[in-house]
Each structure stands twice: as structure tokens, then as C-alpha cells.
């Protein structure tokens, strides 16, 4: 169905109205109650994914707030996210570093049957806007990110879509507010009327309005300031593109290109292979770039994707032999990569980290450089990274959970060799 069937044009920041069709998104209204028996009352929209919408809801049975991820109908039957989340459940005694599944059910709408994943509410890290978070961006938070990835990998899973939007902070403070509290103490939801041009179209197949995303961080900062006065509790989010290693092949990489690993970027840009394979070692590279963004509020690489491979090689100071043919037809605009040039670039990063108040900037640089190796077979596992010297002395290293991550699968890529100097 094309957008021309709807009277009002789509607006950036909202899902497309044309996605509300047979097999598409589930039409949701604020205040409706989902579940069988009815249990989850919709409060506001938290966000959207490629094939889903995510809503803040009140669990009327447990008197707590939850996040509902509602999958579009034609993706429900082949979605693997439920299986992944079930593998990542932790006991009540453990502190999770991955978003936790609380419940699951199916909801039927005129557009089909939708899987609904009920999860803990998590606030995505918005380092660009919430400067109140920055004073507590510590090595403990970085350690938690790697801890979460080690846990995922230890369960045999590759995430495959790590970028800053898929890292979050647990927000238990939201439970103290009922749905009426939130409605009365926050701004009116941003809505956009949606009207079909045909009177024959089933009006129940699309909502009466599209809903903008609730600014959960702003609400917590204003109504529960203790949210920023305690240590961060990191969660890794959105496992919709994850897969179980060894049981299936990797799906198409959907990570934003500036956070995607070089083995994927090269195959996509040089070989035009849009389904380039990736695995757990690919997550290591992407998480390093997330950590940089976590600290610096921006990406390490530019958004000019045509230069992305060149930037990767400059920061790594080497050129893979497999990339030589590509390099011949795409010469370096700023000279050939050299180890000493890479050292200089990372020295500049050290200065930026120091200005940001990072603990031990040289140590953080050494950690990131261990993670950002062009050859995926040479990247350390997340389990090994937990014991990096950067984390020496952290209390978290003495936690029993760290020892349980010592699962280090080998990543074999025999055709990937590098030359320290391009001759």
C-alpha cells in the first residue's frame, strides 16, 4: 500500500502510515489494554524498529511499568527474537546486562496476529542531550557493556546490530509512577492524525493517529532525579537481528555502516555483497565504536561511507591483502596507512578522552585498539576483554558472573591476512 492512500503526508520521527496494512504493524491507541485476559494498559510510545513498535505500558497485575515490543504480523511467524531472549534470561539474584523478557503473548488485529514481547523498561543512552549522565560515564560502565556482550556470546548468540541506540540504562524509577501519574506529569503525547482516503478501508486496520516517541529520559530527569544520581546499570537492547551461532547463518547486517565491522563493510562496498556474513567477532568491533560514542557523543568515523574503509585502515595502520584490488581502484586520498599514523590518530583520541574526564585515557585507547583489529580472527573475545588491564581493580572483576564468561570460540578466517605496510 502506498502513502498516497492516506490523506496526510508522513512526517519524520513517526512510522509510515502505509505500514498499517494486512501483514503490517498493529494499530495501537493510548489507553487501550492488551493481553488475554486484559493486563497491559498502553501509556505512550517509546520507539519503533524496522518491523515493530515499542510502547510503555502499565502491568495492571504486577503494578509495574513495562515495555511492549509489538512485532508486525508478517514477521511474527519467523521472528527469532523470542528464542534469543529466552536464552538470555537470568535468575532474580543476577544483575542482567541484557534487556530481560518478562512475558510474551499474541495479539490479533485486523492486520494479522502480532507477537508481543513484554520487557523491562530501559532508557536508551542519549549522550548527545543528557549531560547529567556524563559525570558517571566510568570504566565501570564500559566494563558492563563488555560484560553484557560476553554474556550474550557465552549463550552462543551473536548480536549483529550494536550501535549506540541499542545500548540503554535500566530505569526502575519509572515503576513508582502509575499510568495516570505519567499522563498528568508529562507533556501531552505528540500525535499525528491518520486518515485513509477511501471510505471502504477498514478503519480498525490503522490507528486514529500516529504517536511520537515519549521522552522517557526527560521525564525521569524531571520527576525522578535519583535516576542520574546512582551508578548506571547498562543493558544491551534489541536482539531482533541476532542469531544462534552454529544453528543458522547470519542474517543480513543492518548495523549503521559507521558502526559495522570492516569484514562487512568491505564485502558490501567492494564486492557488492549485501548479505556479507558476520559473527561474534564482528560484535567486538561494533562495541568498540559504541564505547567511543558513549564517551565522546559522536562516532569515530565520518558518515561519508565512501571513505569508510580508508578511515578504518588509517586507524588500524594496516591493509589486508584481500583488500589490495579494491585499493588499487580506490587510492588513498590522504596517503597510505602506516602504524605511526595510526598511533598519532589514537594519541589525539587520548586528548579528547582526557577532556571528557575519562579514567586512564591511554588505557582506554589500548582497550579500543585491541577490539578494533581489521582481521576478525585476531580480535580478543569479550570474555578475555573483561580481564583487560584497563579494568584492573574494578570490584566487578571479582564478581562470580565474570568467571562464567570464559567461553572463547575460535573465529577462523584463513583468507584474511594483513600487511603492516602497503608497499
From TrEMBL:
ATP binds at residue 69. GO terms for molecular function: ATP binding; protein serine/threonine kinase activity. It comes from the Eukaryota. It holds the Pfam family Pkinase. The keyword Secreted does not apply. InterPro entries: CLK_kinases, Kinase-like_dom_sf, Prot_kinase_dom, Protein_kinase_ATP_BS. PANTHER family: SERINE/THREONINE-PROTEIN KINASE DOA-RELATED, SERINE_THREONINE-PROTEIN KINASE DOA. This is Kinase-like domain-containing protein. It comes from Mycena albidolilacea.
Amino acid at each position: 500500500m502506498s502513502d498516497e492512500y492516506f490523506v496526510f503526508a508522513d512526517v519524520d520521527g513517526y512510522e509510515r502510515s502505509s505500514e498499517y496494512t494486512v501483514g503490517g504493524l498493529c494499530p495501537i491507541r493510548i489507553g487501550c489494554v492488551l493481553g488475554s485476559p486484559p493486563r497491559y494498559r498502553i501509556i505512550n510510545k517509546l520507539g519503533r524498529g524496522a518491523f515493530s513498535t515499542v510502547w510503555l505500558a502499565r502491568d495492571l497485575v504486577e503494578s509495574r511499568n513495562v515495555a511492549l515490543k509489538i512485532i508486525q504480523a508478517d514477521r511474527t511467524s519467523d521472528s527469532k527474537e523470542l528464542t534469543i531472549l529466552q536464552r538470555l534470561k537470568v535468575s532474580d539474584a543476577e544483575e542482567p546486562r541484557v534487556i530481560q523478557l518478562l512475558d510474551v503473548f499474541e495479539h490479533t488485529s485486523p492486520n494479522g496476529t502480532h507477537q508481543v514481547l513484554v520487557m523491562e523498561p530501559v532508557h536508551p543512552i542519549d549522550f548527545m542531550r543528557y549531560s547529567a549522565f556524563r559525570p558517571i560515564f566510568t570504566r565501570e560502565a564500559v566494563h558492563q557493556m563488555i560484560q553484557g556482550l560476553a554474556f550474550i556470546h557465552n549463550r552462543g548468540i551473536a548480536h549483529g546490530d550494536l550501535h549506540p541506540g541499542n545500548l540503554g540504562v535500566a530505569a526502575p524509577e519509572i515503576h513508582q509512577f502509575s499510568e495516570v501519574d505519567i499522563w498528568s506529569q508529562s507533556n501531552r503525547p505528540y500525535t499525528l492524525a491518520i486518515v485513509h482516503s477511501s471510505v471502504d478501508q477498514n478503519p480498525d486496520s490503522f490507528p486514529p493517529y500516529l504517536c511520537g516517541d515519549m521522552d522517557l529520559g526527560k521525564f525521569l530527569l524531571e520527576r525522578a532525579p535519583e535516576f542520574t544520581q546512582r551508578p548506571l546499570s547498562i543493558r544491551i537492547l534489541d536482539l531482533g537481528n541476532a542469531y544462534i551461532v552454529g544453528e543458522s547463518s547470519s542474517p543480513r547486517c543492518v548495523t549503521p555502516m559507521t558502526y559495522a565491522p570492516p569484514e562487512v563493510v568491505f564485502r558490501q562496498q567492494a564486492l557488492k555483497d549485501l548479505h556479507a556474513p558476520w559473527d561474534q567477532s564482528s560484535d567486538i568491533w561494533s562495541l568498540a565504536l559504541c564505547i567511543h560514542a558513549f564517551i565522546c557523543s559522536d562516532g569515530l568515523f565520518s558518515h561519508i561511507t565512501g571513505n569508510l574503509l580508508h578511515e578504518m585502515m588509517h586507524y588500524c595502520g594496516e591493509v589486508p591483502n584481500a583488500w589490495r584490488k579494491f585499493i588499487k581502484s580506490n587510492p588513498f586520498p590522504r596517503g597510505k596507512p602506516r602504524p605511526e599514523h595510526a598511533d598519532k590518530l589514537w594519541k589525539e583520541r587520548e586528548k579528547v578522552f582526557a577532556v571528557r574526564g575519562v579514567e586512564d585515557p591511554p588505557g582506554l585507547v589500548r582497550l579500543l585498539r585491541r577490539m578494533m583489529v581489521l582481521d576478525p580472527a585476531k580480535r580478543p573475545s569479550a570474555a578475555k576483554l573483561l580481564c583487560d588491564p584497563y579494568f584492573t581493580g574494578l570490584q566487578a572483576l571479582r564478581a562470580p558472573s565474570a568467571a562464567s564468561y570464559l567461553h572463547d570460540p575460535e573465529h577462523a578466517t584463513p583468507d584474511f591476512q594483513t600487511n603492516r605496510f602497503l608497499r
